[in-house]
Each structure stands twice: as structure tokens, then as C-alpha cells.
Amino acid sequence: MAKRKNEDTVVTENIISMDFTEEMKTSYRDYAMSVIIARALPDVRDGLKPVQRRILYSMKELGLAPDKPHRKSARIVGDTMGKFHPHGDSSIYDALVHMTEDYSLSVPLVDGHGNFGSIDGDGAAAMRYTEARLSDGAMTMLSNLEKGLVEFMPNFDESEKEPVVLPAMLPNLLINGTTGIAVGMATNIPPHNTAEIISGVIACIDKPSIPLSDLMEYIPGPDFPTGGTIINKEEIEHIYECGEGRLRVRGKCEIEPGTAGRTNIIITEIPYTVAGNKTKLVESLVSLMRDKTFDEIYDVRDESGKDIRIVVEVKKDRDAQNLLNGLYKKTPLEDTYGVNLLAVKDKQPIQFGLKSIIEEFIAFQKELYTKEYEHLLDKAEKRREIVQGLIRATDVIDLIIEVLRGSQSLSQAKNCLIHGDITDIKFKSEESKKLARAFDFTEKQADAILAMPLSKLIGLEILKLHEEEASLSTDIESYNKILGSEKELLKVIKARLRSYAKEFYSERRTVLDSIQNTGYVEKVVIEDIYVLIDRFGYTKTIDSSSYQRLTPETLAEYPNIVSMKSDDKLCVFTAHGNMHQIKASSLPRCRIKEKGTLIHTMCKLGNDELLTYASFNELFDSILLFITEKGYIKLVSGAEFETNRQTINATKLEDGDKLICMKQLSASEYISGSKKVIMLTAKKLSLGFALSEVSEFKKTSRGVKGITLEKDDKLIYADCIDTKEETGTLNGKQINYKKIRTRKRGAKGQRATGVIE
After folding, report:
1. 129 is catalytic
2. Are residues 366 and 326 in the same domain?
3. Which of 143, 276, 474, 594 has the greatest number of beta carbons closer than 10 A?
4. Quick check: is 379 in a domain?
5. Torsion from C-alpha of 65, 68, 74, 75, nearest 10 degrees
6. Inter-residue contact 174 to 357 (CB < 8 Å)
7. In this predicted model, what pLDDT tens digit does every residue of 520-557 receive, in sequence order?
8. What is the chain's alpha carbon radius of gyration, rounded to the nearest angstrom?
């Protein structure tokens, strides 16, 4: 307790001491669970995220049944946000739009009217322009809400009630699938064929111990609304067993003759991963044609109408099948769908398998159907009670009328009907009193009798009462039979599921196959290219003709320019003594105005310092000179660097040493005797000696001493120059080579004034 005294008052504050680390852990855990349970992941029972459930319930409350007119989406979003989901209108509308997409869902839950986007990637119109109502599929989740089958909970401000889960009679989680990203976890459940899933559920009901392999005879795999082909069929069983894995999905393509002797590749179905963004696929095809990645492509056209039809026109005398293999590799025409069967059960995220999801659905159905038939039984028994009372009343209607006429109040008459109390009631005879004392109607029967219209005394109406009583008795017997036997309950569940299978039946659209990836055989066209690397490391290649058109001002922006062939490799040497290789075909082909790609990302350099670049073909025929910061020097044949590995050790370094010079020399330069080595140290000592004094070593060797360094000294500059050269540069300053004395390799450096001017 702390007290703070002012002029007039004394204020007492409660100060709570807490550990900051523990508070952060608690807050983060609470936030994570809130996102997982209340936002991102579906419930395993109805397969819906909270926002989807709230939208459907709001539409139910608005009376937007499939046979009712559409209502403005803005009204639906407003009601949902104001009553149940206070997280912003855009997220609610996005969820509403998604539930209308027949290219995303096997059974859409919302019937949209207006522009709700397209498979191309077009966005939906603003919510004020679109309208919506519930679909028939949604009614399989909402039609029994009034029967009290599920619990309700207070909304965010406790002003309304909302269902904890919807009484879903369809296995929506598997039929429509879902995608969601939570904190530290994500779910990605593919859609399936409705009839297949229902068949699988019925098979599990009939044989709870059915093995997964047998279950997959009914559910062979996902069925995407966009069709396509799953090419790794053999992995599906493993995915269904463990609840995660990767599916390889291809679009459906056909090869047919075109015009002018050309061949056409016709894409009629696209991978599910591209659904809602077909334009991305088309753009990637156009980009491949424009950049001449595939020289075989003559033209790309999107001729899609109601059905998808993307035409890739292949040049004359080119292999269309080979090009198609290349398109599978280079475009989203073949893509990966990552499966993760994660859902919420009892407010906990759980990794499910296919069978365990079905088992949860069956358990939920047993609970729902039990409550439904308990509700029907209670309703039928209450109605039969009333009907039986009305039938009895018609038999003694004259006495009842006498009671009513002799009573002074309605309560007095009702008390007589229930308890036979005739106190203060006037009767015509003692016989009537005696008969009235025998009345023992129930309270509900008495209320119904007192409210019964005279028309019920017509003969046909009396007959209808007897028929209704018989029908109710039959129903009650049937309900008791169902509730008294799990076998009978399951029969009812299966019968309704079969009716849904017929109602929402569709042919399987996705083909399941096992296809080995056939590589693209590239027809290599070797050409001269130039690799341009700016001072920040952004790299691109241009062809020879483009290079010839560059101005000196433009060339000055690129301190590193490497000329090479298109089938060559770019070798990148670093200060840590590594050599990285990048295929010329992997380097970005760009226009001169485009930035290119950072070379660090292509080589995974990390914090390593770039030293120099070289063409491998030229490197192979060269002699390489290596000089380190500690003064070690060696020559290595370029042939030693022939490797298929992306990264190798180009030289051996001592701890704390680094490479400061890698010079590429031709054979003629090496044997000419006109080259010498120049070295400068941090303590302003210098040394020069003939290149002929340097021996050739293996790349795994450290080399020999080029200079004897004083304690705490190091090389800051080294180069191999022509004996006729007079000057060089270091950090923008001029080096006067004439001031550097030529001595023997390995000697100590000498101080020479005027070396760096």
C-alpha cells in the first residue's frame, strides 16, 4: 500500500508487483489461444470457424432461407459484427464471399447474388452492391437449431445468445475443407467429394474397426472443385493416417492440332492452389514466353468463358509434350498442396487423421440425433396428451358445457376439470354432480378443452382427432424404439446421410494417379551474355546486343561485369576462401532498367564478403593467384575447381585469416616473366617480387609466405601487375608502384615514402 497526500485528500493506490517475463508468457499464451480457438481454426464437429458460424447464424436470424429473397451483404455483415463478431467488417465480408465460391467449396454455404469475384482472381464488389442468402447446404447445419440440439453461449457483450456449434448433419469439415493460420500452427484441409465422404461415414458406422486401407475404398482421396490431377496417389494413405503431408496437384491439359502447322496445349482444369487466382497462372505463362525461358512458345491466350480454356500455342516442329513437362516444372500448372488436418476439439487444437475426423462426426451425430428424437418424443407426447383430452371431452361435451355454464369463473371451471372440484358450481342434476366429481383431466388438457372451438364437435373433426391420436401413438412408439436402440438410431442417421448424398451428388472431378515427374529436355541455344553486378550486389544478365547498346555512363554503374556463355557458370569468390557456383541459366535475365536479384540470396553468402567474380570456362583454363591477409601466397590450376557442388573451399585458411586477393592469370601471362606481386601492409610496409617465385599448390594447401609480417601487422593490399605498370588505386588513393622495391619472396616489407599518394 502506498499513500500519496495532496492538499485536501489522501489517495490510496493498490500496487501489484509481478514478474514481467511471466506476465508476457501469460499474455502471449492467452492471445495465442484466443486466435486459435476464436478466430483461425475450425471446430471438428461442424467444420466452421467462429466467423463463418456467426455469419450463418445471423443469416438464419434474418430469415434468409433459400426460398426467401436475397438481402444486402452490408446488412448481413452489419448484423454479424454488431451482434456476434466485433472484429471488423472486411474480415466478415471476406468470409462471406468465400462461402459463396463454388470453385473453393464442394457445397457452398451461401447463395450469392451479384459480383462475388471469380476464379480468375477478380475481387468481389463492395458489400453494398452484393446480396446473399443461405444455400441448401447451409440448411443442413441450421434447420434443427430451434430443437435445442446444441448449447448457446452469451455473445461478446452478453446482449445476445449464439450457438457454440451448429447442429451440422453433413461432415462439412471434410466436404468443404478449410484453411487457417493461427499462432504457431495452421490448418489446411482439402475438400472432398460429398457422396464419397458420406459413403465413408456409413462404412465407419457399419464397421467401427474398419482399417484405413478399406476406408479409402470409399474415400480414395481429396476431390477439388477445380478438378486437376493428384499425381502422388501413393502418399495419400500416409497423409490420411498421420494428418499431414504434401499433395502434388496438376492441371488438366490436352494436346491438339493448331493452325499453320502449330500444336496447341489446352489447359481445361487448373490446380486447386491457383483457384481464385487463375490470372497468376496465365501471367506466368506469358512471362515465360516474353523472357524466352521456353523458346517453343509461340503465343498464350486465355479463351476461358464459363469453362476454363487456356491455350499455349507451340511453334512448328517443337515437342509439345516436352514443353508441357517444362510448364509443370516452371509454372503453377503443377503445385504442392500442403495437407494439415488440424481442428479444435474441446477448445484444444488437435491433429486428426481421416478416420478420427469421421469418428468425431459420428459421435456428434449420435448426440444430435438423440437430442432431436428426444425433442420429437417430448413434442409428440405433449400433443398426444392434448389430443386424448379433446377426445375424452367430446364424449362428455354436454357435461363440460354444464360445468362451464354453472361456473362463476374460468379458474373455477378449470379446477373442476382437473380435480373434480364442484364447489359453488350449479348443476342441473345430482347425476351431473356425480359425473363432474370424476373429472381428472391434466392441466394442459383442461387448457385445450377450454380453448376448443365449437367446430371441433363436427363429426369429421372428431374423426381427425382419433386419427391424429393414432398417428401420434405410432410416432411415439417409433421414437422410443430409436432412442432405446443405438442400432435403430444409426439407421436413421444413415438414411438421412443417404438423402444428402443424393441431394448434393456430384461426379468426382479430381483424378488420382501416380505419375513420375518427367524432366524438361531443354534445347540449349548457346549465346554470349554479360553478367552485370552493381555495387550493392544486385545481379542480372543481358544478351550481347543489349550490352553493345549501353552507354559508358550506364556501364559505370556496374563495377563488376563478366562476359560468358549462356551454358557457363558464374564463380563467386569470398573473403572466407569459398567459391560459389551459379548456373548462367539460373541468373535473372532482365532488361537494363530492371534491378535484378541480390547475389547474396542466390549463393546464400550470409555475412561472407564478396571478393571477385569469374566465368568458369575461363577459370578452368587459367592459373589462379591467392593471397591472404596474413601474407600467404600460392598458385592453383583452374582445373582443380571443376565440381558439380554449389559451394566448395577454394583455399585453406588459418584461423583469423582471410583472402584479400584472387587474381586470374592466363598461361601466357604466367610464363611470360613479365608479372610481379605487389604487397602493402597496415603499417605502411611494402614488398614486390617476381611472380616466378611463387610455386603452384593444390587448392587444399595454405601456400607459402609471400611476406614476413611484423607483430600485429597485416596485408591491406595485394595484386599481380605487369612490370611496366606504374600506378594503381587503393580506397580511392593512388599507389605508386615505382616506389615499391623488388626483393625476394618472403622478405620483410620496407618502408617507402610516397607509395600511397
Report:
1. yes
2. no
3. 276
4. yes
5. -80
6. yes
7. 776 666 888 999 999 888 999 998 888 999 999 999 89
8. 42
Task: Quote the DSSP letter at residue 100.
Answer: T
DSSP designation for 673: S
**578: which strand partners?**
649
Rounded Cα gap, residues 636 and 696, in angstroms: 6
Containing H/E element for 519?
none
Strand 511-512 versus strand 229-230 pairing type: parallel
For 432, the grid coordinates are 351431473
Domain span holding position 76? 48-167
CA distance 755 to 31: 65
Q: Are residues 498 and 540 in the same domain?
A: no
Find cell 401420434 and name the residue.
Answer: 472
What is the identity of the amino acid at 574? T
- pLDDT, residue 10, reads 54
In a domain, 386, yes or no: yes
Catalytic residue among 129, 373, 558, 670: 129
Output the 3-class SS for 186-248: EEEECCCCHHHHHHHHHHHHHCCCCCHHHHCCCCCCCCCCCCCEECEHHHHHHHHHHCEEEEE
Give me the number of domains the chain comprises: 4
Q: CATH number of the domain at 93, please.
A: 3.90.199.10
Q: Rounded to two decimals, what is the model's pTM?
A: 0.69
pLDDT beneath 50, residues of the chain: 1-5
Closest alpha carbon to 339 in 356, 352, 358: 352
Q: Phi-psi region for residue 121, left (φ > 0), alpha (ψ -120 to 50) or beta?
A: left
Which cell is 72 given? Answer: 444486402
pLDDT at 1: 43
